[in-house]
Design brief:
CATH superfamily of the domain at 131-261 in chain B: YVTN repeat-like/Quinoprotein amine dehydrogenase
CATH architecture of the domain at 131-261 in chain B: 7 Propeller
Largest sheet of chain A: 6 strands, antiparallel
Number of helices of chain B: 6
Structural class of chain B: mainly beta
Helix content of chain B: 10-25%
Strand content of chain A: 5-15%
Strand order of the largest sheet of chain B: 1-32-31-30
Number of helices of chain A: 35
Strand order of the largest sheet of chain A: 2-1-5-4-3-6
Oligomer: heterodimer
Largest sheet of chain B: 4 strands, antiparallel
Structural class of chain A: alpha+beta
Shape of chain A: elongated
CATH topology of the domain at 131-261 in chain B: Methylamine Dehydrogenase, Chain H
Distance between the termini of chain A: 39 Å
Strand content of chain B: over 45%
Radius of gyration of chain A: 34 Å
Shape of chain B: globular
């Protein structure tokens, strides 16, 4: 019977590199038909059927006040990606989920238009018909010429896989927040510049007008003012008014906390500052007019000289003028930064969700091994992730409150958000929302008390020329009328309706206070409110870890210092909870009582009996739970001071198992990994851009290593040399061949520190002792010239520190190896065929070695006497016994573990600041010459 | 090995056969040095290493820079810059004041005709003297008198504050090449072929005043005196360029015994005449002398000779201990001897008592002389030499240290801290006992664990 792995193996196309070892083709009649979608680059598990695009992409859309929702750009910028997918239609949908009704205008009681620093909103929505699911991140940019000064944008991550969006919600949110923050930072800068220019214009205009008035006054001796003069005076007054308003706007935008910006070269995302600028939104009344900090102003003030122009009182109609592009709205620098970030996101989340999750889990686990992970892992890419995760939630301190009291404050919150939901929906003139809007509106109007309207006759403001594009009920306009200031002329000509929107807009502006995660939750309070196929999915970030209790968290930690990615996530959750809490508290009692519904998401988290829809089981959860179960027993012991008995049992047991199951083991890993790699979505590629190259390198290295162990019967001593810290020289005439060998062998080289691997691919000059200190694997050129003889002389001189692999004559000169570890590591009869699989196999065995080295290093009595009087010999005996009996190491394997332990020690005791002297350890052991 | 590298037996006469030097191979059980640290800093030949205290040493060389190092960690402590030319002599000068805390100074002399005193604690220049007419080639500190001497074309006596106490008249242009302290306030200075004994005497008029008087000139050497060593309170020894070793009485400066041409082939009838031809004077010069209570160890050419003072004869020798001239040798407390050479290697020897062999002289042929790594080949020679029934010794190679790519100028033995070697390849290498270092690191590790509080069981 053919087992599943076999089937997979035969249906898979061999990799190109495999050509040497390709097996004879299967007779036609026996071959299993290929998976029908295989040509698509897809896997049998992917749900690709319904989607019209070939891979995930990012879409940026704008709700243009002129043409409505429109797609601006996609990342990757490739027409093939979106395929037949209707971007216009989808833009419309995503933009209609949340119209960022950022409130600009005159809040009641305030004399001047006020900018609100609107929080972004994050929504997950799906379109089952299109087969598209999207994480949508709404943001608002400021534009002096735009209606209400705001331009709503959104960035959407569109994928065919709903689970992917749900499970990566937190990560997506974090990454997109960065992009958004970057855009907004640039936008604020541009906006401030624009305001300054405008102020100069106005100033100039005022001067001109003033002069004219003076001239008229002088010319006029009749004693009364002509209509013309009155007009001029009015004009002057309005210009002055405008100046004051603009100054106020400038002050507001400058008051945005900016301090950090000039310290680091670019750091748009500052969670700790979020609190500060959330404040003005929190109290509805005008922000305290604290002068902008010197540091910030300085940022804006240096502007190239600008010649002011005269401003005409009447501005062009809004439809006549061209709106600024996104690039113009932000500084070019920030725009490119944002694009970079978005490309980064696109690369990061490429591929199948299983792949992403596995990657994340293994990264989180590796991060935990902070003592040993430097040996065989690339630390640089481990470091990047955690901070980001930690910043997942903005603002509010982690110590806000316990998540338990969360439920009490849920209800009011729902109402707030629901209001916002409505307000956003109704602002979008899309027919499909129509009925819903209708049904909601009466309720709404009951609840709201509209502000007293004032009809205003300011005709001159071109600032808000865009405010009344008129196609929908303008929330801002009505609100603004309360205090009566600038009005666009077009709007003024319309009868201003005292409409329910006023109240709603109030709620809407309130909503800007709320934090991201809640935003999402509130977005879809119940199924009934949402059109059938437009149902927003629930954010997974919260659902994901209902089991993540606090007690669990500690079991995972090695020491608190070595806190893990998982723990971070949990921190995030508790943060979110506290966020919710605070948020809700500040919104209590501000809204109509009609919408007293429990918040589904949060209700679901603590108690599922609410009957709310649950996220389908997630693929990685059992895996992770398994790991959690298994982990504490092994790594949860702090300080590595395990009692002997415990680990001896564990280790010897594992040795037996690994010995006996070696063959199946290699088979099954090959199967699993091939499955994993086929799993990856349309474009199987690594999750992390930094490791993208590394991944490719791994694959190639794995493939080359596989070939090496099959080709060279003396692969074992060569690998032993590398693992025991003896520099291996690959000597050859052909650079390509040497480099290939070096690449192959590099996966066995332990890192000496956090720096790059001690591997030098190609050297042509004679080697020196210092080189052996620095590099543990060197590719060396063999030439026949006199210089070449010098090279060889150096080699023979330092031969005691070296193992030499002669790639030309296929010989190896190195110490004898009689251990067992390398045999498992490099079995020339292995069934593994793929480079990446073999790489994983190697990694797993190296990880075992690392854990042994860890135990060995951190067992106190193995290195130091128990009592003062204990002779050194007994310590040495104990040490050797431990290595041989407890760790089950044979012969030369002891040296491998000792070398790794030495590296661990050096790494641990090394002060973070200084690099530490690289030292060279060696043994006086005879070398042997191996030939094929 | 090289033949294998160069490939396929294209050179039938392997290089190994050419060398008469005893080799030990890669398995060196007795060699404790299994870890090394390369100390980089110098930009030219490093010629001198001096120990400052238990864990510090200074290095100096042709680049005129003095470095202070930590012998345990290999950390560079100070970089002392002040000389513009190469350094010609260096001497440590510790304060003998018991009351004060010990201050460590080093004195360096350079070809720029200056002498600088450095403070090793602060790494600063204490004082600089630049009134010399010629390069100071040797420095000697007389701790007992709390003065130091500089030897160039004349001999000057200085106190700690760098006051010139007295000086001799101009001696020769070549200058003093070596100085050694003798009892009764005397010093012996090697000036060319002559050995001059000076006596320091307190002048009558002042407490700080000293006079230096030439007491005696010894002209027994045929060629320039290259090495000068004090054996004990009663004897000192000198070695010259043509290979004379003279042992002197330190009190009355008379020649106790001398071994002229004791390496000469005439003494050793088994040496073939053609080899004698190849012996240039350079290969017979006594490069360096060291001694313990009973023996003087001489580095002569490529070989090492052990001269017993009581028996007044060479008791053991290794004619070709290295591939080229031995530059420095030192006796360790544990009967071991370390030598370094221009060939870039450092070798560790052990002086062993030879089992009594049958007395009949073994006919030693060419191959025996050019031995193939047989450790006890000297036994035969020794046996022939020692006709009486005295204990016989031989030098057994117990290990070699290969690391430098050029001549190893000098080394400094730090006991269990290891061995520092300096070389013409601008490097200093710190050789350490890997086992010891490993357990030291473990100790540090657990101290750090305890310090960080990681040893507690955390929940």
């Amino acid at each position: 019977m053919i087992s599943a792995p076999d089937v997979v193996a035969f249906t898979r196309e061999e990799e190109l590199e495999d050509d040497l070892y390709r097996e004879p083709p299967l007779p036609e009649e026996y071959s299993v038909p290929l998976f029908p979608f295989a040509g698509h680059g897809a896997n049998p598990w992917a749900k690709v059927a319904s989607s019209k695009f070939t891979r995930d992409f990012i879409l940026i859309s704008e709700f243009s006040e002129q043409v409505g929702p429109q797609p601006l750009l996609t990342i990757p910028d490739d027409a093939k990606v979106s395929g037949t997918f209707d971007l216009n239609y989808f833009s419309l949908r995503i933009m209609s989920v949340d119209y960022q009704a950022s409130f600009v205008g005159h809040p009641p009681g305030s004399a001047y238009p006020k900018l609100n620093f609107v929080e972004d909103s994050k929504v997950v929505l799906g379109d089952s018909k299109e087969g598209a699911f999207a994480y949508v991140h709404h943001l608002t940019l400021y534009d002096l010429e735009a209606r209400g000064f705001v331009r709503p944008f959104c960035m959407a991550y569109i994928s065919a896989d709903e689970h992917k969006i749900m499970q990566q919600f937190q990560e997506l949110s974090t990454e997109f927040s960065k992009a958004s923050e970057c855009l907004k930072t640039g936008n604020r800068k541009a906006f401030a510049n624009e305001l300054e220019k405008k102020l100069k214009d106005l100033d100039y205009t005022r001067t001109v007008l003033h002069n004219e008035t003076e001239v008229q006054k002088k010319a006029n001796d009749k004693g009364y003012y002509t209509t013309q003069a009155i007009e001029k005076a009015n004009e002057l007054a309005s210009v002055e008014k405008l100046i004051i308003e603009h100054q106020d706007l400038l002050r507001q935008i400058r008051s945005y906390p900016y301090r950090k910006l000039k310290e680091s070269e670019f750091h748009p995302y500052e969670p700790e500052r979020a609190l500060d600028w959330a404040d003005p939104g929190c109290d509805q009344h005008p922000a305290p007019s604290d002068p902008a900090e010197p540091g910030e102003t300085h940022l804006y003030t240096h502007i190239p000289s600008y010649t002011p122009k005269l401003i005409k009182a009447k501005s062009a109609k809004c439809f006549d003028k061209k709106l600024k592009t996104l690039e113009e709205l932000c500084d070019v620098y920030f725009f490119t930064q944002t694009l970079d970030q978005l490309h980064h996101i696109e690369r990061t989340f490429r591929g199948d969700v299983c792949y992403l999750l596995t990657e994340q889990i293994s990264r989180a686990l590796l991060k935990q091994q902070s003592v040993t992970n430097f040996l065989f892992e690339d630390i640089s890419f481990l470091d990047e992730k955690p901070e980001k995760q930690y910043r997942g939630c903005q603002g509010l301190g982690p110590d806000a409150m316990d998540g338990k009291c969360l439920e009490e404050s849920l209800t009011p919150k729902v109402v707030v958000s629901l209001g916002s939901y409505k307000s956003s929906v109704e602002c979008v003139p899309i027919k499909m929302e129509q009925e819903m809007e209708d049904s909601e509106e009466p309720k709404m109007s009951e609840s709201v008390t509209s502000e007293p309207q004032e009809n205003l006759d300011y005709l001159d403001a071109d600032i808000k020329g865009s405010i009344s594009s008129g196609e929908s009920i303008e929330v801002l306009g009505t609100e603004k009328s309360g205090s009566g200031l600038t009005k666009s002329e077009s709007q003024a000509s319309l009868p201003v309706i005292p409409s329910p929107q006023a109240g709603r807009s109030k709620v809407g502006s309130r909503r800007t206070v709320s934090e991201d995660s809640i935003e999402v939750l509130s977005m879809c309070p119940s199924e009934s409110l949402i059109p059938e196929d437009f149902k927003a999915s629930y954010p997974s970030a919260i659902n994901e870890e209902p089991y993540a209790d606090n007690d669990n968290e500690h079991g995972l930690r090695f020491t608190p210092r070595l806190s893990t990615g998982v723990a971070d996530e949990q921190d995030d959750i508790s943060k979110q909870e506290s966020l919710v809490q605070v948020d809700a508290a500040c919104c209590i009692g501000k809204e109509s009582p009609n919408f007293l519904e429990p918040l589904p998401e949060l209700g679901q988290k603590p108690c599922e009996e609410d009957g709310v829809v649950r996220i389908p089981p997630q693929p990685y959860r059992p895996a992770e739970q398994g790991l959690r179960g298994g982990f504490p027993s092994h790594d949860g012991v702090p300080g590595g001071l395990l009692p002997y008995e415990l680990d001896s049992r564990y280790l010897s047991g594992s040795r037996e198992v690994s010995k006996s199951s070696l063959d199946e083991c290699s088979d099954s890993t090959s199967y699993i990994s091939s499955a994993a790699s086929t799993c990856s979505d349309r474009t199987p590629s690594p999750a992390h851009p930094a490791c993208q190259a590394a991944e490719r390198h791994r694959k190639r290295a794995g493939q080359n290593a596989l070939r090496f162990i099959r080709q060279y019967p003396f692969a074992h001593p060569a690998i032993y040399s590398l693992l025991s810290g003896r520099t291996l020289i690959v000597l050859g005439e052909d650079e390509a061949m040497v480099k290939k060998l070096v690449t192959a062998l590099s996966i066995f080289v332990p890192n000496c520190g956090v720096y790059a691997k001690p591997v030098k691919h190609w050297v042509t000059s004679p080697l020196h002792l210092v080189d052996f200190q620095k590099w543990k694997l060197i590719g060396l050129q063999r030439t026949v010239s006199p210089a070449g003889v010098n090279v060889l002389h150096a080699l023979s001189r330092y031969s005691r520190y070296l193992s030499i692999l002669d790639a030309d004559s296929k010989t190896l000169r190195c110490p004898l190896y009689k251990g067992t570890v390398v045999a498992r590591l490099a079995d020339h009869r292995t069934q593994i065929k793929r480079g990446s699989t073999y790489y994983m196999h190697v990694q797993s065995i190296l990880t075992q070695l690392c854990s042994k080295a860890f135990l060995f290093t951190f067992c106190h009595h193995l290195h130091l006497p128990i009592s003062e009087r204990e002779p050194e010999e007994s310590v040495v005996n104990r040490r050797m016994n431990f290595l041989k009996l407890q760790l089950g190491l044979a012969n030369e394997d002891v040296k491998i573990v000792q070398y790794l332990a030495e590296l661990l020690k050096l790494h641990y005791i090394q002060e973070p600041g200084q690099g530490g002297n690289p030292l060279l350890r060696f043994d006086y052991v005879p070398s042997f010459l191996y030939k094929i | 090995m090289l033949r294998w590298l160069i490939g396929g037996g294209r050179e039938p006469q392997g290089l190994a056969e050419k060398s008469s030097v005893q080799t030990i191979g890669e398995e060196q059980i007795q060699n404790p040095y299994t870890e090394l640290l390369v100390l980089k800093g110098h930009q030219d030949i490093v010629r001198f290493l001096v120990q400052i205290d238990d864990c510090r040493f200074a290095s100096a060389g042709d680049d005129g820079i003095v470095f202070l190092w930590n012998a345990q960690t290999g950390e560079k402590l100070f970089e002392l810059r002040g000389h513009t030319h190469k350094i010609t002599a260096i001497a440590p000068f510790s304060s003998s004041d018991v009351s004060e805390e010990k201050t460590h100074l080093i004195i360096t002399a350079s070809a720029d005709r200056t002498v600088i005193v450095w403070d090793c604690t602060s790494g600063r220049q204490v004082q600089k003297v630049s009134c010399f007419h010629s390069t100071v080639k040797c420095l000697t500190v007389l701790q007992r008198l709390d003065v130091w001497l500089s030897g160039g074309s004349d001999l000057c006596v200085w106190n700690r504050k760098l006051d010139l106490l007295c000086k001799t008249s101009h001696l020769t242009d070549a200058g003093i090449s070596a100085l050694v302290e003798l009892p009764k306030n005397c010093v012996a200075a090697a000036v060319g072929k002559e050995l001059i004994i000076f006596r320091l005497s307190a002048s009558n008029n002042g407490s700080e005043g000293w006079n230096v008087l030439e007491v005696k000139r010894l002209v027994d050497h045929q060629d320039n005196i290259l090495s000068l060593v004090s054996v004990n309170d009663l004897t000192f020894a000198t070695g010259s360029h043509v290979g004379e070793l003279i042992v002197w009485d330190a009190l009355d400066w008379t020649k106790q015994t001398s071994e002229c041409n004791f390496w000469d082939s005439s003494v050793h009838p088994d040496v073939q005449p053609e080899i004698k031809l190849s012996q240039s004077p350079n290969e017979t010069s006594v490069q360096h002398l060291t001694s313990d209570e009973e023996c003087v160890f001489a580095a002569v050419g490529k070989g090492i000779y052990v001269y017993n003072l009581q028996m007044k004869r060479v008791i053991a020798c290794q004619r070709t201990a290295h591939d080229s001239s031995v530059l420095h040798i030192e006796k360790l407390p544990n009967r071991q001897l370390i030598s370094c050479s221009e060939d870039g290697s450092v070798r560790i020897w052990e002086l062993r008592e030879k089992q009594q062999l049958p007395a009949e002289p073994v006919p030693t042929g060419f191959f025996n002389m050019w031995g193939f790594g047989r450790a006890n080949k000297q036994a035969n020679q020794a046996a022939k030499k020692m006709q009486e029934n005295t204990p016989m010794y031989f030098l057994e190679l117990v290990g070699d240290l290969i690391g430098h790519s050029s001549a190893v100028q000098m080394f400094l033995y730090f006991g269990e801290l290891g061995l520092a070697t300096c070389s013409a390849d601008h490097l200093i290498i710190l050789w350490k006992d890997g086992e010891r270092e490993s357990s030291l690191r473990s100790l540090t590790l657990f101290q750090k664990l305890a310090h960080n509080g990681d040893l507690q069981f955390k929940l």
